[in-house]
Sequence to fold (369 residues):
Amino acid sequence: MEIESITLKMIRSPLKSPFHTHLETVYDREAIIVEARDKDGRTGYGETVPFSSPWYTEETIKTCYHMLEDFLIPMTLSGNWEHPNELSELWKGIRRNQMAKSGLEQAIWDLYAKQKEKYLGRLMGGKKQYAAAGVVIASNDRKEALRQIETFSAEGYKRYKVKISPSSDLSMLAAIRSVYPDLPLMADANSAYRLDDTVHLQKLDSFGLQMIEQPLGVDDIAEHSLLQKEIKTPVCLDESICSYHDAKSAIMLGSCQIINIKMARVGGWSQAVKIHDLCVQNGIPVWCGGMIEFGISRAHNVALASLEGFSIPGDLSSSSRYWEEDIIEPDITVRNGEVKVPDSPGIGFRINEKRLKELTVYRETFKAM
Ligand code: OSB
Ligand code: MG
Fold:
């Protein structure tokens, strides 16, 4: 594959409302849009989605920019490769830095799919016409959380995820269950508990949660296996799964019953699909996790969620959940709890160039020699 140039656009936008977790409250979002162009002027788009500070993973917008500018882009423009499938191998000398790799790999896959005139999701083996959508309630205020559930239920979301921590979990879940006894509900702990909290976590079994996401350490696999044996609620791993090897270890040890696949956290499309296939072989249902991202990343997620193993609704909320105006057209919209999977070439959405330009604070183009 020949790539003429790669452009990085740093974008910034406030969220419509603050996103609260026990680790951080996010008010503004930055991202690096990656544009890969071929000699015929076709452009593929990717989105690099770390946060501005390293509270969720170790990567940040600046570390990603550094990795892209100084290593990944020069290697890709000068490297000897034919197919986007070979990028993981080309980049294997660069340890981790999954989110930086993911944004660039996405742009190249989108370009490749556009060259082949195929929808990217289909090219990756996706067959679904609709992807089931869930939404995240991220407020520490119980009244506000209930208000959000009521607002979002107009779109018929098929799964509601609430952020929890030891100080607020029981009161928050009891408040939600008293109003919505049958709501498809799950809880995301973002690593707020220790194995010593097992007795406390057993109390959450009575809330009929679909799962508890990442209760223990961000890089733990072994202790989750011990915890899963003591609680009835299925454990789902998020932060702990950064590679195929992590997923394999978690499955071997029985550390979880469900895996959240975030393309950005595992280094892009090829790794995400490999983990998906492993989970399907082992009977582990997966769902597509979100990163409070802009539309380009969400479009890649919709394509990923069109694969058969994504049998649980993902973090695929509508553009209007976070943004006054998104950078893609049309918006991502959720109807009756589903996003229609597009079928036009590449990511299947156009770019809202005017909005993208408004949000761009810095841009740089790298050309092949
Ligand atoms: O743990 O899944 C998480 C957002 C930022 C960082 C971590 C997480 C999240 C979410 C997804 O919960 C929210 C979304 O994109 O809708
Ligand atoms: Mg999570």
Notes: The mean pLDDT is 97. Residues 188, 190, 213-214, 238 surround magnesium ion (ligand 2) (CB under 6 Å). The chain has two domains: 5-117+350-367, 122-340. The first strand starts at residue 5 and ends at 20.
